[in-house]
Amino acid sequence: MPVLVASDLDRTLIYSPAALALTMPDARAPRLLCVEVHESRPLSFMTETAAALLTDLGDAAVFVPTTTRTRKQYLRINLPGPAPKYAICANGGHLMVDGVSDLDWHARVTARLADECAPLDEVREHLLANADPLWVRKHRVAEDLFAYLVVERELLPEEWVKELAVWAENRGWTVSLQGRKIYAVPKPLTKSAAMREVARRTGAELTLAAGDSLLDADLLLAADRGWRPGHGELADAAWSAPQIAALPERGVLAGERILREFLRATRGATS
Questions:
Q1: Residue 129: left if φ>0, alpha if ψ -120 to 50, beta else—which one?
Q2: What is the pLDDT of residues 233-266, one digit of tens each?
Q3: How many Å from the N-terminal Cα to the C-terminal Cα in the chain?
Q4: Over 90: is that where the pLDDT of 179 sits?
Q5: What is the pTM of this model?
Q6: Which of 76, 192, 259, 267 could lock 53 by a disulfide, CB 3.0 to 4.6 Å apart?
Q7: Cα dihedral value 135, 138, 139, 143, nearest 10
């Protein structure tokens, strides 16, 4: 039976220049591979060693990129290794099969959101009315499923995010702060539900996962084994669970370590 590996991407396997955390002397810094270009500029990286590990993993397991990114944002990433048959985008709102969204899955997700959550328009209007232009740089709606703000972190009042989380909780939504982005996401819109669907389709009996943010917690809890890096929302909250390993590595070297763990667990299960 195949092993399914569902991994978050940003700040888990791939890293922007600001998130690399290259704390070692320059001469000892790892060689980096650019895996995303946006508007003619390099945007995301992994180490060359991580790239080789991901290539090996793609041959050994069903690797499923699992991201809050929109489909368009995901498709501009050029990961090394075999092209994944499945990918989870928009936090589970879109299940990609060979690069195309599964329409039946998307319809099931949107029907559930309509039944269980306050509408997106209400949340978006609240963000527009209450976010201060002093620290907000962009308002965005992703795939007509959720909303997020791009902010200046050094100017963002810490209490504002907590107050937003309380407001959202009462309406069936959750809030996550990741880097310079504040996400407001409907609670039923989860990476874990999409991962379970891929496991059902592939017949996978072992599921492995990794992620760094609050939006990855459900994915990690749904997997048989999981890993989180030493940075991010989950690390900051000292979040843990029995099947989750908290790694000490931070930044791009954490991505390398996570891929080593994925490959070790996959080979152990299939040997």
A1: alpha
A2: 999 999 999 999 999 999 999 999 999 999 999 9
A3: 12
A4: no
A5: 0.94
A6: 259
A7: -140
CB atoms within 10 A of CB 129: 7
| Residue 77, C-beta contacts closer than 8 angstroms, at least 6 positions apart | 9, 14, 35, 36, 44, 65
Contact at 8 Å (CB) between 80 and 55?
yes
Both structure tokens of 253: 């070297």
For residue 214, give both structure tokens. 């609050």
According to the model, what pLDDT value does residue 158 have? Answer: 85
Token couple for 170: 């009462």
What does the alpha-carbon distance between residue 270 and residue 234 come to, in Å, rounded to a whole number? 30
Site of tokens 């791939």: 14
Alpha helices per DSSP H over the chain: 48-60, 71-75, 103-116, 120-130, 158-169, 191-202, 217-222, 233-236, 252-270
What is the CB neighbour count within 10 angstroms for residue 225? 17
Residue 84 near residue 65, CB atoms below 8 Å? yes
Digit-coded pLDDT (tens) for 109-167: 999 999 999 999 999 999 999 999 999 999 999 999 999 999 999 999 989 999 999 99
